[in-house]
Amino acid sequence: MIYLTKKIEFEAAHRISNYPGTCSEIHGHTYYLEVTVSGKVDWNTDMVLDFKILKSIIQTGVIDHFDHALILKRNSENEKIFSSYPGKIAWMESEPTAEQMLLWIVSSISPLLPDEISLAKLKLHETSGSCASWKDNKR
Amino acid sequence: MIYLTKKIEFEAAHRISNYPGTCSEIHGHTYYLEVTVSGKVDWNTDMVLDFKILKSIIQTGVIDHFDHALILKRNSENEKIFSSYPGKIAWMESEPTAEQMLLWIVSSISPLLPDEISLAKLKLHETSGSCASWKDNKR
Amino acid sequence: MIYLTKKIEFEAAHRISNYPGTCSEIHGHTYYLEVTVSGKVDWNTDMVLDFKILKSIIQTGVIDHFDHALILKRNSENEKIFSSYPGKIAWMESEPTAEQMLLWIVSSISPLLPDEISLAKLKLHETSGSCASWKDNKR
């Protein structure tokens, strides 16, 4: 099986509102995302998928949504605090931990992939030393 | 199971002759290759395989062939264009996409490994943001 | 399945006493260790495990033991050579190859993890180009 990985960065702010420590403060990360898909080599193009198509899927499914956004759990506390904030907010149903952002990205990217291409793995680095990853359990 | 990975770079030029875009121009990459093998720890040496042996296998099986070469599909168009080119050409039966180069490298490295060592994974980076990988389906 | 990876460095010296080459000399590495655990997302914290807890487990299970130590196989040759050495020595039952250090780290970290968290993968880089890794065979 052949896998293709596209790596891309985005900058965002977040706060973990229920965290008993400084992560409840607004802070940010240069998120570094690795998206891995799998599929068969197309013998017409000698490619599994054009890297440019994969990049544009990540742009639509992830970057347009999260880049330079403030990522927040939609709860009454956050809705009150940021009620006058005019900037871009990416609301989530959960706290914006790397784990939950990964699961969000799985749901967002999967339907954008061509039929013959599967999402195999995602890796989301919050810092150079900390990352969360997701793997398709079926393989 | 223990895995050993050796990472190595080589510089090469290629063109994807059937690509509808700039990748049909001659261009090049600093290819960054990760070769992962698996095996049992030898209790005499406390190693699976000496990293130096793995490096020399990659040198013979990959670097000697591709480094500072122009990698091309052997088709009539390329044979005509480069008929007067005196430099090193690595001809392939397919377009020299990362996907097909990976499959070529699998065939080239596998027979060079010692009996008790298996090729487990290959990762070939064309750029810092784009890589193709291959995994042994049997594990 | 969600995986969390924490990456951490430590500096140590070692010698491979039975190696027929310069690795039998005392030398050192900036070891770069990646520890990957897996588990389910806790819907109270929206995390699998706080990265800070994982970091502190690695500190206790690996860094406190190996950092700025001289790592040696406990054999009569080494015991004689270093009998007057007053510094920190991390003795091992095997030669301190990356392979055997990995297996040592598996045994050291596993019992420190919370019940619902499993050790999934370890990657130990001796240099930027050479690393050994271990994967849980059960998954």
Order of helices and strands of chain A: EEHEHEHEE
Quaternary organisation of the protein chains: homotrimer
CATH class of chain A: Alpha Beta
Give the averaged pLDDT of chain A, no decimals.
Answer: 96
> What is the CATH T-level topology of chain A?
Tetrahydropterin Synthase, Chain A
Largest sheet of chain A: 6 strands, mixed
Task: Give the CATH superfamily of chain A.
Answer: 6-pyruvoyl tetrahydropterin synthase/QueD
Name the helicity range of chain A. Answer: 10-25%
How many β-strand stretches of chain A?
A: 6
Number of domains of chain A: 1
Radius of gyration of chain A: 17 Å
Provide structural commentary:
- 3 copies of one chain form a homotrimer.
- The first copy, chain A, is of the alpha/beta class and about 140 residues long.
- Chain A has a single domain, classed as Tetrahydropterin Synthase, Chain A (2-Layer Sandwich), CATH 3.30.479.
- In chain A, about 25% of the residues lie in helices and about 35% in strands.
- The first copy, chain A, has 3 helices and 6 strands; from the N terminus they run ββαβαβαββ.
- Chain A has helices at about 50-65, 75-80, 100-110, and strands at about 1-15, 25-40, 70-75, 90, 120-125, 130-135.
- Chain A has a 6-stranded mixed sheet with strand order 4-3-1-2-5-6.
- Chain A is elongated and about 55 Å long.
- The model of chain A has no long low-confidence stretch (mean pLDDT about 95).
- The interface of A and B includes residues 4, 44, 45, 47 and 48 of A.
